[in-house]
Amino acid sequence: MIFINKRNYIVLGHSTVIIAVEVQATNENEAMDLVKKRFGGIHEYAGNGGVDKLIGVNGKAESIYAPENVEFDDVMEENYE
Q1: How far apart are CA 72 and CA 10, in angstroms?
Q2: Which of 14, 34, 39, 76 is 20 to 30 A from 22, alpha carbon to alpha carbon?
């Protein structure tokens, strides 16, 4: 029997994430200023086997979505030593 020594690799990819925030304002400039002041950022949430698997936003009027496919573009060997 022949054993093949397999290694673990982490393959990295990226995708565009779009954030939408609903605000009430008198014009587009004010709307942009309000969002820049109020938006709390993208957060990592626990779930799906870890604390680095899920992302989200906090506000009731905020949403996050990824409309594009993931492009895998880097690979690195996982070293457990």
Answers
A1: 11
A2: 14
Question: Using one digit for the tens of pLDDT, what is the confidence trace for 58-67?
Answer: 888 999 999 9
Domain boundaries, the chain: 22-71
Question: Residue 40 and residue 56: Cα distance in Å, rounded?
Answer: 11
Q: What is the pTM of this model?
A: 0.70
Render 17-81 in DSSP notation, one character per residue.
-EEEE----SSHHHHHHHHHHH----EEEEETTEEEEEEE--STTEEEE--S--EEEEEEE----
> What does the pLDDT look like over 37-50, one tens digit per residue?
999 999 888 887 77
